[in-house]
Write a structure and sequence with these properties.
Mean pLDDT: 97
Oligomer: single chain
Low-confidence stretches: none
Largest sheet: 8 strands, mixed
Structural class: alpha/beta
Shape: globular
Number of strands: 16
Distance between the termini: 14 Å
Radius of gyration: 21 Å
Helix content: 25-40%
Strand content: 15-25%
């Protein structure tokens, strides 16, 4: 592990603690001028202001008076997939909806075909290129879902690719099993059989190989109902997989309410989340993981982030990087949208892509803030303050990225 002293920090901006922030606390950011951070054996050991300590043998990095924040955490991605779906752009421009494309065998089902045709090594090599780009944008921790296999063999293939990437890439990956991402065409008249396969075949096999931490499901019109989602997530819990849920992306069919009822770690999308869903998540302690770049790409409305914050729901934001509804992995753009479309403050946005995002993937005790004992994951920005990185759009402002105390 590396020792590193980051000195001459013009402004260190970070949330604090090892739990998700909600309500007014979401915007409570520690701001330290003329700061320094000492990283030893990959972990933050000291943080202070003024003259930095002696650090014999440590690599010394000069922040040149710039802004420093924790490394960004992307808490929702569909990282592992075969092919792309640029052919759907024209359909969308002519008004064909996401669910209509899916019903025609496109969308997720198209990517399933490409993913099944690719080897594990091909999937991992392709995803590694995406991770390289994410790292350049300041992402140091990333969630990665399966869900483009929709059968035992190919779901395991995706999750094994995530495992292998986590061993060889600087970004830390958190794996999520999303076998219930769509209903395969051959099961349209026998939904129960596919759900049985997810619960009785896929989940036990995923757990046997220790390939995932979470179980996710796409609760949406034309995909899985709230009760079907409950069945799958409760089964995952029985096997030790913590629940997540894609909810209220297109229609509010009860996913966000279910999230709070079953204690889901996170509910994701929530574009059309109703008041009763917000109340349920607040009661259940569920993190709302919002995906504004997806709303932007689909021309959809934006999730009621402000209402969630005011109701005491911890809000995280993520890229939703995937080949169909959001082929974008720039979390800085997500931060822009957090201010411009969600009307969150820059301080609330920073928490949403650091500590709250970490909480959405069970990493809040390890990453998401710059504090002693946490991983030495930081970004030096080509910016004087936090407002600047939320104000500027279209440029990569991550000047230097530090992962576990090493320049990457």
């Amino acid at each position: 592990m590396s020792n590193l002293l980051l000195k001459n920090i013009g402004l260190l901006a970070t949330p604090s603690g090892s739990a998700a922030k909600r309500g007014a606390e979401q915007g409570a950011i520690t701001m330290m001028k003329d700061a320094w951070v000492l990283i030893e054996d990959g972990l933050v050991s000291q943080v202070g202001t003024g003259t930095p300590p002696e650090a014999p043998g440590a690599q010394v990095v000069d922040a040149c008076g710039k802004l420093v924040t924790p490394g960004l955490v992307d808490a929702h991605t569909h990282l592992i997939f075969g092919g792309w779906r640029q052919n759907e752009l024209g359909m969308k421009l002519h008004g064909v909806s996401y669910l209509e494309i899916l019903a025609q065998g496109g969308g997720i089902l198209s990517t399933v075909t490409s993913t099944r045709a690719a080897s594990q090594e091909e999937l991992a090599d392709k995803a590694a290129l995406a991770l390289d780009e994410m790292l350049r944008f300041g992402v140091t921790t990333c969630e990665a879902k399966s869900g483009y296999g929709l059968d035992l063999e190919n779901e395991l293939k995706q999750l094994r690719a995530i495992r292998d990437l986590n061993q060889r890439h600087p970004i830390d990956l958190v794996p999520t099993f999303l076998g219930a991402h769509a209903l395969p065409a051959q099961y349209k008249e026998n939904r129960g059989e596919f759900i049985r396969q997810v619960c009785e075949d896929m989940i036990p096999a995923v757990v046997e190989e220790n390939l995932a931490k979470y179980c996710d499901v796409f609760c949406e019109t034309g995909v899985f109902t709230a009760e079907e989602s409950r069945t799958i997530l409760e089964c995952g819990k029985k096997y030790g997989l913590l629940p997540k849920i894609h909810a209220d992306e297109i229609d509010p069919i009860g996913g966000s309410v279910l999230a709070g009822e079953i204690g889901a770690v996170s509910a994701e999308h929530l574009i059309v989340c109703p008041p009763e869903g917000i109340a349920s998540m607040a009661k259940g302690g569920t993190v709302a993981c919002l995906l504004p770049a997806t709303s932007f790409y689909l021309g959809a409305t934006f999730a009621p982030a402000r209402e969630m914050v005011e109701a005491g729901v911890p809000v995280a934001m993520a890229s939703d990087f995937n080949p169909g509804s959001c082929p974008c992995l720039n979390l800085q753009f997500v931060m822009n949208l957090g201010c411009l479309r969600y009307k969150l403050t820059p301080e609330e946005v920073l928490t949403a892509v650091t500590l709250n995002a970490a909480a959405a993937i069970g990493m809040e005790s390890q990453v998401g803030s710059v504090e002693a004992g946490k991983l030495g994951d930081l970004v030096v920005w080509d910016a004087p303050d936090l407002d600047y990185i939320c104000y500027r759009m279209g440029s990569n402002l991550a000047k230097t990225v530090i992962k576990r105390g090493s320049l990457v």
